[in-house]
Write a structure and sequence with these properties.
Elements: E1 7-18, E2 22-29, E3 41-48, E4 51-58, E5 68-73, H1 81-86, E6 93-97, E7 112-117, H2 121-133, E8 138-144, H3 153-160, E9 164-168, H4 177-182, E10 189-195, H5 196-208, E11 216-221, E12 232-236, E13 241-245, H6 251-257, E14 275-286, H7 294-299, E15 302-304, E16 309-318
Parallel strand pairs: 7-8, 7-10, 8-9, 10-11, 12-16
Antiparallel strand pairs: 1-2, 1-6, 2-5, 3-4, 12-13, 14-15, 14-16
Bound molecules: FE2/S2 (inorganic) cluster.
FE2/S2 (inorganic) cluster is lined by residues 264-267, 269-274, 289, 291, 304, 306.
Length: 325
C-alpha cells in the first residue's frame, strides 16, 4: 500500500563512510528539496535481484539547501536494499519520494530523553538539533553493540557536545536503560529509534519504574529475531499457493513475488497492516514485530509478514486481503 503519487528522479551526489558498514548518502532530487520535520523519511526504489522494491530511510539532521541525507548500514544478511545502495557511485540516478513523517516530534515537553540504538540515530539527530535550537532540555543516549556500528559520531558530538552520551557494549559500557530512566523527570517525553529487541527492553524498564508508556514515541528497524534465519514454507489453501521463504527474504516479499496481495505500509513490524491469520503451524514462529501483544505472540494465531518468520517448518495462513472487499 505504497503511495505512488510523489515519486521523482534524483541523483546521488556524494557518499561518505562512517566505518566499514555505514555510509552517508547525499541525494539531490530533481526540482529541489522541500523542507521537512525531524523524524521524516524518504522512500527509495531499490533493485533486488532485478526486481524493483521500495525501502524507507530516515533523513539525517536538519534540512539542507539542495540535498536529502540518509545513512545506511550494510546489513548481513539483508533483503538486499542496503547492499544495492552501498554499491552505488556518485552520479547514480535514483527514484525517491518527497519526505513523509510517521515519527513526528511533539514540542512543549518539560524535557526530552532521546535513545538511539545503532543506525537508529538517523531520525533522532535532527530531533536533537531541532530541540536544541529551541533551547529545550534534552539528553541523547546513543548505544551500539560495536564501535563500528556507531554512525555519525563526529557530527553528533559537534552538534550536541555534553548532551550526548555514547555506550559501546564491546567496550564493556552497556546502556542501563533502567538507570537512565530513573534520573529522568516523570513528565518528560522519550523518543526511541533502534532494534525491536531494544525497544522491548525499554518498555520493560519503563514498566519496572511505573512510568506511563504514553510518554514513549518510537520507531524500530531491522527487527532481529531470537532465532537465526532459515528457509520456511508458507501455504495459502484458499489461493492454492505455496512459497518458500529463504534466509534474507521476508515472508511479505516472498508472497508478493508469488503474486499474493498482502496489505503493507511500514514494512518493519510496527503498523500491523501486513498481519495475517495463522491457521496451522509446523515448528515455531520467531515474532519480530512490535505490533502484536505478548499474549498474541504466545497464541501464534497471527504473524506480521514483513518481519516475522517461521523456524523448523512452516505456516498455513490466510491473508486479510480479499478481492471482493
Ligand atoms: S507492514 Fe507494517 S507491520 Fe508489516
Amino acid at each position: 500500500m505504497h503511495d505512488h503519487n510523489d515519486w521523482m528522479d534524483a541523483e546521488l551526489i556524494v557518499t561518505r563512510d562512517y566505518g566499514p558498514d555505514i555510509r552517508l548518502f547525499e541525494i539531490a532530487p530533481a526540482g529541489g528539496v522541500v523542507t521537512y520535520e525531524p523524524g521524516s523519511h524518504i522512500n527509495i526504489t531499490v533493485d533486488i535481484g532485478g526486481q524493483a522494491d521500495v525501502r524507507s530511510y530516515s533523513l539525517v539532521g536538519l534540512p539542507r539547501r539542495s540535498v536529502y541525507r540518509i545513512a545506511v548500514r550494510r546489513v548481513q544478511p539483508s533483503r538486499g536494499g542496503s547492499a544495492w545502495l552501498h554499491n552505488l557511485l556518485p552520479g547514480a540516478k535514483l527514484r525517491i519520494t518527497s519526505p513523509r513523517n510517521h515519527f513526528p516530534l511533539q514540542h512543549g515537553a518539560s524535557s526530552y530523553l532521546l535513545i538511539a540504538g545503532g543506525i537508529g540515530i538517523t531520525p533522532l539527530l535532527g530531533m536533537a538539533q531541532a530541540l536544541q535550537q529551541r533551547g529545550a532540555d534534552i539528553r541523547l543516549l546513543y548505544a551500539a553493540r560495536r564501535r563500528r556500528d556507531l554512525a555519525l559520531a563526529p557530527e553528533i558530538e559537534a552538534a550536541l557536545g555534553e548532551r550526548v552520551s555514547f555506550f559501546i557494549s564491546e567496550d564493556g559500557n552497556r546502556l542501563d536503560l533502567q538507570a537512565a530512566l530513573s534520573g529522568f523527570p516523570a513528565d518528560g517525553d522519550i523518543y526511541f529509534c533502534g532494534p525491536a529487541r531494544m525497544l522491548q527492553g525499554l518498555r520493560e524498564a519503563m514498566a519496572a519504574l511505573g512510568r506511563p508508556q504514553g510518554s514513549l514515541r518510537f520507531e524500530t528497524f531491522g527487527s532481529g529475531g531470537l532465532q537465526p534465519e532459515e528457509s520456511f514454507w508458507v501455504r495459502i489453501p484458499r489461493l492454492g499457493v505455496e512459497v518458500t521463504v529463504p534466509p534474507g527474504c521476508s515472508m511479505l516479499d516472498a508472497l508478493e513475488t508469488a503474486g499474493v496481495e498482502v496489505m503493507s505500509e511500514c514494512r518493519r513490524g510496527e503498523c500491523g497492516l501486513c498481519t495475517v491469520d495463522v491457521m496451522a503451524l509446523e515448528g515455531a514462529i520467531d515474532h519480530r514485530d512490535v505490533f502484536l501483544s505478548d499474549h498474541q505472540k504466545r497464541e501464534n494465531s497471527r504473524i506480521c509478514a514483513c518481519v516475522s518468520r517461521a523456524v523448523h517448518g512452516g505456516l498455513v495462513i490466510d491473508t486479510a486481503w480479499r478481492a471482493d472487499q
